[in-house]
Amino acid sequence: MAPSAISTGLEKLQETLNGSPDGRKVADLARDTKDYHDPNARITTDYGVKQTNTDDWLKIATEDKTGPMLLEDHAGREKIHRFDHERIPERVVHARGAGAFGTFKLHKSMEKYTHAGVLTDTSRSTPIFSRFSTVLGSRGSADTVRDVRGFAVKFYTEEGNWDIVGNNIPVFFIQDAIKFPDVIHAGKPEPHNEVPQAQSAHNNFWDFQYLHPEATHMFMWTQSDRTIPRSYRMMQGFGVNTFCLVNAKGERFFVKFHFTPNLGVHSFVWDEALKLAGQDPDFHRKDLNEAIENGTFPKWQFGVQVIPEGDEQKFEFDILDATKLWPQEEVPIEYFGEMELNRCVDEYFTQTEQVAFCTGHIVPGIHFSDDPLLQGRNFSYTDTQLTRLGTNWQELPINRPVCPVMNNNRDGMMRHSITKGTVNYWPNRFGAQPPATKEEGGYEDYAEKVAGMKQRLRSKKFREHFNQAQLFYNSMSPPEKMHMTAAFGFELDHCDDPVVYERMCERLTHIDLELAQSVAELVGAPIPQKEGRPNHGKKTKGLSQTEVVAPGSQGPTIATRRVALIIADGYDPVAYNGMVAALKAGGALPFTIAPRRNPIFAAGESKDSGKGVKPDHHLEGMRSTMFDSVFVPGGTDSVNTLRKNGRALHWVREAYAHLKAIGATGEAVDFVEDACALPGMDFSTSAEVVDSYGVVTAGQVQPESFKETLKMAKGAKDFI
Ligand code: HDE
């Protein structure tokens, strides 16, 4: 028999496995992976019988007449029946997402805090799977909407799976899990008309935000640039909830988990995000795959903030309150390892869709705190998988651990494992499968004395909601504050009920009067005259995204940035080739854009030469929003053509309006300056353009000058 699809797939994956740091999960998945492109494989039914015709239903028919179809056609029925049942319920939140495989490498043992192998054994590389998501939108919604992003990581450790199910924002809307259905119902499309999709800009969301003051800190974050990230690769990840670590001596520590991206934190401007939602709804998932496929693997430094047991009460906030962050001046982040994403998924459904994260998945040395949001989440995640995936969801290839699994949980729909033996209970007369001792790696619960009154209550400190909302706002840079005013302006403009937008403006006076007044002016609410609460004026570091720097990273880089080079026939080949080479050398991704996708010819190059450059896209096929930067080389004919092309003009002007780095050489310098000029602006000196907006031009072009040009572009503040 010819090698089956399964064995070919296995061999291929086995090859990948050799020398692969995350080999354990690769090998594990290989058991269930087959290669569709195996040349020896033939189409079969699900029960394995090869098929000769999958295009015509079996029917009574002649060359002249098509008669009735036969129910007898099992293969026909199987094909339709399988199709009818392809969909599973999408996630009730975080339905839209993208995932990738990777590796976690521990650089520094954290044994002073925990005995978890994954955080103490520096010789280990732990395979991981990570999924990023939006929260409110359906599975088919756009990537770039204003929303919190999910940041979930599954560590396939030697002691079982450990999941961190985090977000790209360190705090949350609610303190107690029991409010989750309310906050999500309020944010999701309204019940009467299922509008709007994937946005918080509507009456119900803001009605709830006002009436539920504990959401104040979080909504300040959602109105910041954090909710319109440029890339999943450029977001921080936060565990949000307070977890505990316990060391070998039995000492306990309260911790918050942090992932800090090596590329820094960057965002779109709102206009870009809005346009991209229509122009390229898959922008973020494509961006993730593109980076991995190009070998520029996204990396994050992994760290914790630690509060030793006994110090819980030393803070003005309750350390179990998920609407509060731990200011870094008070509790610094200790970094201990690096997470890298280095392999795209082989199949979306079986991996990214079927992956199931649970906050309850922890390994020995890691524990829960009494954080009331976390405790409720621990119930919800396992529960929701039953609806999505069925009882045996932990057996799915993407979810199963790389260490042995053995217990007396049996049966249920779609059971895969076959467990040999005559008993399925403990204790049994054979002494088979006893629970593990602590020394054998068994999970030991932390013994904690608990006393209290049974009542529906949170402690006093949970009732303060505005201190950190102010702290966050005060910590923003001036452009970030400006963006927040505009974001509130947009969101509340979409609320048509004056009750909603007027009292939200009033609520903003509890944060900052000037902010409240600017927003009120925009959205048509009475301009507040009095502070609802004086601004304490305090700031803290690391909240402005301009301040987020991963330890050891080199700071802003052009690597992985998408740069569009716009040319037409007669372009200057020295400038074009020089820039392409310089960009590639810097790890950036150059894309050639032209009026057509058929070859474009350089100045002096004959159209009959059979050469020319084949552009990646034509001007109408893409938009400037999909690129980080635009470069236009000179060349009289090329620039003359571009000047007459409205779309070319729009490309440059739009990139300029989105504060992107723009470069031009030779004849293109004037073209770019004209394109960027707006009525009333003084462009008598290009220096003004350079200073304020990161436009870099060079009249004379020498190949060596490209290094310089690139350096300037890298330095242009708005590029990063
Ligand atoms: Fe979730 N959340 N959540 N959540 N959450 C889900 O689980 C829930 C919360 C987060 O890529 C669901 O498997 C409750 C905070 C992410 O597959 C569900 C509460 C944070 C993902 C659920 C919260 C998150 C989810 C839906 C309040 C940041 C996507 C599908 C107590 C720390 C994971 C699923 C993925 C998904 C419940 C609050 C992050 C219903 C009850 C806070 C990243 O179980």
Descriptive notes:
Helix content is 29%, strand content 15%. Strand 8 (243-246) and strand 9 form a beta hairpin. By secondary structure, the chain is of the alpha/beta class. Helix 5 packs across helix 13, helix 6 packs parallel to helix 11 (467-474) and helix 12 crosses helix 14. The model is unreliable at 1-10, 685-692 and 710-720 (pLDDT under 50). The chain contains 20 helices and 18 strands. It has 4 domains: 5-61 and 70-84, no CATH class; 97-191 and 205-395, Catalase HpII,  Chain A, domain 1 (Beta Barrel), CATH 2.40.180.10; 476-538, Hemocyanin, N-terminal domain (Up-down Bundle); 562-719, Class I glutamine amidotransferase (GATase) domain (Rossmann fold, 3-Layer(aba) Sandwich). Residues 91-94, 97, 131, 133, 150, 152, 165-167, 172, 177, 180, 240-241, 322, 355-357, 373, 376-377, 380-381, 384 line the site of CIS-heme D hydroxychlorin gamma-spirolactone 17R, 18S.
| Main structural class | alpha/beta
Mean pLDDT: 92
Major beta sheet summary: 10 strands, antiparallel
* The named CATH superfamily of the largest domain: Catalase core domain
Ions, cofactors and other ligands present here are: CIS-heme D hydroxychlorin gamma-spirolactone 17R, 18S
Helical percent range?
25-40%
Calculate Rg over CA atoms: 29 Å
Shape: globular
Which spans have pLDDT < 50 for at least 5 consecutive residues? 1-10, 685-692, 710-720
CATH architecture of the largest domain: Beta Barrel
Strand content: 15-25%
Count of discrete domains? 4
Write down the CATH class of the largest domain.
Mainly Beta
Number of strands: 18
